[in-house]
Write a structure and sequence with these properties.
Number of strands: 7
Number of domains: 1
Number of helices: 5
Radius of gyration: 15 Å
Bound molecules: magnesium ion
Largest sheet: 5 strands, mixed
CATH architecture: 2-Layer Sandwich
Shape: globular
Order of helices and strands: EEEEHHHEHEHE
CATH superfamily: 2-C-methyl-D-erythritol 2,4-cyclodiphosphate synthase
């Protein structure tokens, strides 16, 4: 079976007056992620990992932040669009592994719900999604709670 792997990364600034979305789940917090869309860095990293595995560009090329159509859009919708490309090219998702780096809020209580939500969006089984949460040990901008970053890797299998 032909397999392809992909990696994705994203970072968004935290700002007051925004809702915080990670993996399509709204997390209660005093700040949210700035962005042209809802700023969901985790879903953006997954989108880029999927696109990378297919050598199909990146999220910024597909959904430019200069396009008003994507202003305020739910990143769940962006991920669904990427999934259509994956399926259209004849791939199925083997598994998705992710890391979210957030000093605050602590994401431990939300990891399972985030993984369930991503699995539902991608229409795959829960056990194929891994969500890991780390702090940045107080170091740098991430450690100073100025931003949240995410990494994702995916395996695609040829149908
Ligand atoms: Mg982004």
């Amino acid at each position: 079976m032909a397999c392809k792997i992909g990696i994705g990364y994203d970072i968004h600034r935290l700002a007051e007056g925004r809702k915080l979305f990670l993996g399509g789940v709204e997390i209660p917090y005093i700040k949210g992620l700035l962005g042209h869309s809802d700023g969901d860095a985790l879903l953006h990293a997954i989108c880029d990992a999927l696109l990378g595995a297919m050598c199909y560009g990146d999220i910024g090329e597909l959904f430019p932040d200069t396009d008003a159509a994507y202003c305020g859009i739910s990143s769940t919708e962006l991920l669904k669009k990427v999934l259509l490309i994956v399926e259209g090219k004849g791939y199925i998702i083997g598994n998705v592994d992710t890391v979210v780096i957030a000093e605050q809020p602590r994401l431990e209580p939300f990891k399972d719900r985030i993984a369930q939500t991503i699995a539902a969006t991608l229409n795959i089984e829960r056990h194929k999604i891994s969500v890991k949460a780390k702090t940045n040990e107080g170091l740098g901008e991430l450690g100073k709670e100025e931003a949240i970053a995410a990494w994702a890797s995916v395996l695609l299998e040829q149908r």
